[in-house]
Structures are given as C-alpha cells and as structure tokens.
Amino acid sequence: MSKGVKSHLSGITAMLQDAAPVTLRPRGSGAIGAPVQLAQLSAGYQQLQTKVQELESRAGRPVVLPIDALQPSRFQTAGLDEARIENLRANLEHNALASPVVVRTAGEGVYEIVAGHHRVEAFRRLNRQEIDAVIKDYADDEAMALVFFDNFLAPEIPDFHKYLGFEQIRRASGMSQEALAKKAGVSRSLVTQLFSFERLPASALELIAASPRAVGANLAQGLAQYAADQPERVTEAIRLVIEKKLDQSKAVAMFREGTPKPRATPATPVVIRSGRKTFCDVLASGNRVVVRFKSAEDQARAAQAIEDLLRTLARDE
C-alpha cells in the first residue's frame, strides 16, 4: 500500500479513535436494536472500503466502478463515433479491457469520464455492470484538455470538432495558437488552419454543426478569406457542399469565378415503347433534345414527322 494511502487510512483511524464512545442501552429503553446496529456498522464498513478503493485508485491502481455511476464529461465537444463503439464492442465481447478508463469525482458515488467514453459505451451495450477505472483529482482545465486530447488524433474526429476542442481550451486558458499547438504536439499551421472555422459566418457554422463531417479544415481555410465581404455566398457554397451538389475540392475555385455553380444533375432518358418493344429514347439536357431510335427504319419514318412538328412550333412563335 502506498505512503499516501496509509496516511489517509491513519487519519480515518484517528477520527474513529477520537469519536465519542457509544453507550448501548437495553432493549425497550429507546435504543436501536442489534440488527440495526449491525446494519449501520456494515454500511460504515462499506463506506470505508469505498474510500480505500478511491485512495488506491488515486495512487495509480485501478478500481472497479459501476457503469451506472459514470457520466459523460461536460467538456466533450465531439459525439461518439458509432463505428468505433461497435469495433470496441466486438473486441471486448471476447477480450479483457486492456487499459482502465480515467474518471474524476463528480459527487457522492458519481464519476465524470475523462478518458474512455467509447469504452464505457461499448461496455453498456454488452450489458456489463462494472468497469476498471482510475480515479484522478483533475481540475477543470486539466480535465478539459485531457478529454479533448484523448480523441484529438483519432481519424474519425471531424476537423470542426477539433476546432471546437481547441477553442474551448483557448477560451478557458487564454492560450495562444502557438501554445495550443505545442501542448497538442502538432504544427502551428495545423492549429491555424483549424481556427479558420471561426472566421466563417454564423449561418455557415450552424450548417457545419449539423453535418460536421461534410466540411474539412482545408475548405474552411479556403472560404474564410471571402467570409467578411461575402458572407451570404460563403454560406451558400457550404450549403451546396453539404448537400453534395458541389465538391470540396472545387468549391473554392468555383467561388473565385463567381457564384458557386451546383453540380448538374444527370438527365434521365424517357423511353417510348411500342408494345413491349422500345421504339426510342428521348433525352433532354439544357437546350438540346436527343432522340435515339432502335432501328434506322424507325428513325427514317419519324424524321419527317419531327421536322413537320418543329416547323409548326416555329410558326406558332
């Protein structure tokens, strides 16, 4: 047992020794009965045992905590990734947990997850009742940074959520972008690129928040230079990207040329049948109408009729 744990236990023992002695009264004199006393002693033992577990955990040794006692961190900016949870669930169904989750105390018998949100959710889906955990006495700023950096390098985390995490830490700590990059162990240019999101119009950020995977930091950086003077057009460009009517790779280039042009929807040909046989396909695209006949004979018969129709339409103009 570590020195710190022994010290805490010594303090608890001293408190018990200093407590006023309890005088036991005979039954019927208003005293509590022996079964009740035993229950109280048992409850006290359980509390002491829980305290010992917490102290052991803070010394670096994992303890077993009820799953229902764990709650998500309030500093979690990114949602849980479904594919990651399912991969963990499939693995943990047949294998032990390789590393305990990290939590901090959030109240009596309640713990806030600092690292391991996906592992906890995988355990819940497996109907596991308990999980190995290490309890740490993290302050808010430490917990905020650890929650963010626990997932920062995960490939499934969208750039927008990475920006939100950095912005949360900057707002709480006042750190510069250079200091944030150093703390995260990444380049200053990457952090600067992620902070391009904050230069986009509020209306564009609302669209991105609803579909965070649709817009990356490259596009945010490319469009941010136009946001101050042309916020409506920037928002429209992002809307087209989210709706998959405009490629990210082409959005900035098309933006420079003028109003972003949506990707043309391929025309669907109309099939004209004669009984079960296809007579022709009619395809309208832009200012053109293309008619494809299945045989030269059908084309020859229809050509004169088409010409007559067009002449009639021209006269009616």
Automatic annotation (TrEMBL):
InterPro entries noted in UniProt: Chromosome_partition/occlusion (IPR050336), Cro/C1-type_HTH (IPR001387), ParB/RepB/Spo0J (IPR004437), ParB/Sulfiredoxin_sf (IPR036086), ParB_N (IPR003115)
This protein's GO CC annotations: chromosome
SMART domains: ParB
Organism domain of life: Bacteria
HTH cro/C1-type domain ranges (all copies): 166-196
Any Pfam family hit: ParB_N
One annotated GO biological process: chromosome segregation
Cross-referenced SUPFAM superfamilies: KorB DNA-binding domain-like, ParB/Sulfiredoxin
Molecular-function GO terms, alphabetical: DNA binding
Entry's family note: Belongs to the ParB family.
The name this protein goes by in its record: ParB/RepB/Spo0J family partition protein
Organism of this sequence: Azohydromonas caseinilytica
